[in-house]
Amino acid sequence: MQRLLYISLCMAVLLFGTGCDPKKQPDASDAGKYRVVTTTGMITDIVKNVGGDRVEVIGLMGPGVDPHLYKPSAGDVQKLNSASLIFYNGLHLESKMGDVLAKMSGNTKTIAVTSAVDRSLLLTPPEFDGQYDPHLWFDVTLWMKAVGTVRDALGEFDPDNTLTYWTNAQRYFAKLSELHQYVQTQAERVPAEKRVLVTAHDAFNYFGKAYGFEVRGLQGISTATEAGIADVQKLATFIAERRIPAIFVESSVSSRSLEAVKAAVKSKGFDVKIGGELFSDAMGNQGTPESTYIGMVRHNIDTIVNALIGKSSAHTSSTTGY
Ligand SMILES: [Zn+2]
Hints:
Blueprint: H1 2-15, E1 34-38, H2 41-51, E2 55-59, H3 74-81, E3 85-88, H4 98-104, E4 109-112, H5 140-157, H6 162-187, E5 196-199, H7 205-211, E6 214-217, H8 229-242, E7 246-250, H9 256-267, E8 273-278, H10 293-308
Parallel strand pairs: 1-2, 1-3, 3-4, 5-6, 7-8
The structure holds zinc ion.
The site of zinc ion (ZN) has 6 residues, from loops.
């Protein structure tokens, strides 16, 4: 019915000579949906939750893909060209996509989901050349602001369904509030002095600030610069001196450098274990609980807590529950 209305509306507009946006024209194959292209999995998940069955979402970056290094292919440019709306993280997360996204913004609405977040809430680590840290999805309350930005943009593009987007967003907000509580409760199980999170790269500064962890990453904010021997030694000294029981690899970053840290710690007479794999800049494989934002955040906190308080980290996941 909605589709018929839409077609009638388009025809009326055509008759009066003002044209109709071809990108919004319903396609027979997707039953009147409009196409949204996204960069990271976390953003794809927001659009799925808020857009529901009104949108066809195409996410460019799958499981294990590092957004700092990701270069768009010719196929990606085609997908971006076919989009009615494009959502990306911004804050230089997709640093190799800057030119392509800038070109797209001329004729397609291209929106950074972080654009409405109050700049005073963003972190500016000194080692990131004074730029904002882009990894704000690990403070669930900040990511809720990104959800609001997606909701508003979908409503602006497709005003007839504003109520649907608001309803969907409200439902998602409720789940995210619950998630925030869960992470807080789990974090509190780790004694304050043991709340130290060492990972392959600095993706967890917002997590640390929100949930009370001291955070160290081997590779800095972006994975574009490799860690050197001095970085490995410095981190190993820190781990051995503080007797940190576990460090964590990430699904989108090679584990090689953290293995080097583990070996360097051992040479200092202390054993640190690899506490498990965290999902930092990409979500898990399709069909697993970690293929959703909520699942990845739950997996991360469960893995971190279990490893730091000394429980076995093998096969920890949100499905194990508490
Ligand atoms: Zn990152």
